[in-house]
Amino acid sequence: MPERLLPPGNRALVRKLASLDALDAPAKAIAAQARKVIKPGPVKEALSGSWLGHALHPLLTDVTIGSFTSAVMLDWVGGRDARPAARRLIGIGLLSTPTTVATGYSDWADSEVGDDSVRRIGIVHAASNATGATLFAASWVRRRNGGGRLLALAGSGVMAAAAYLGGHLSFGEGIGVDQTAFEHPPEDWTPVLGSGDLAEGDKRCVMADGTAVMVARLGGELYALSDHCSHRGGPLHEGELGDGTITCPWHASVFDLRDGALVHGPAAYPQPAWDVRVSGDRIEVRRR
Fold first, then answer.
1. CA–CA gap between residue 254 and residue 243 (Å, rounded)
2. How far is residue 275 from each of residues 171, 208, 211, 259, 284, measured CA to CA in Å?
3. CA distance 243 to 224
4. Which pLDDT tens digit goes with each residue over 92-133?
5. Single pTM value for the model
6. CA nearest neighbour of 261 among 272, 250, 252
7. At what angle do helices 83-111 and 116-142 cross, to 10 degrees?
């Protein structure tokens, strides 16, 4: 039998954080406040990255953490002449922090409802980053008198731990990724409904060889999109049909029924569209 790899200690720590129900009360309160402040609309779309084509938060973290990390490197290998540059880099990181935080809270608040692990790990991730940013702010102040290097080093360590948790949220929990990316739709036409089973203005979730598809009839035309919203996996068939659109019931992302194009965020990805036809007495779909 091959030797099995044991889970590393850091993964066990993440699992422990995910099991701490004591984190729920503060996390729920903060998430509710974030949703109250960052409401659906242009600001929410901007923070979610709807205009960019993918989540904005990871891009901004590169600016913030990159500036802080570069400053720490200059502190320890750049010599005395590099200290003014290190202080300026910390200033850049601090200036970028509010927007980075806002995008992170926006993404997390959309994802933590009903998901205990995301709620708990996310709040620790946020608290760790806040601690790290505070240490860097204190370092920036102390540098007026020639000190602050150890504060920055400590801040870098705390932010490294926070970054690990952020990586888990993205790659382990799927926060910020296209929720339809791993669908395996059938290549051929697949019957899903009887031709008389869908009334005008109605919409249904059907299964096409294991993939959930929303089929709708509007204005005498048939439309089909993947049912799981690309944003956070919301059930589109429970949403509201509009003038050629469907609105996700979870976070109000709006998609064009014709081709799944994104009309309004907070989704950052379009919705996969399916071809749909009536063949005999059956409605059939095929991934476009």
1. 11
2. 31, 12, 14, 9, 8
3. 15
4. 999 999 999 999 999 999 887 778 899 999 999 999 999 999
5. 0.85
6. 272
7. 160
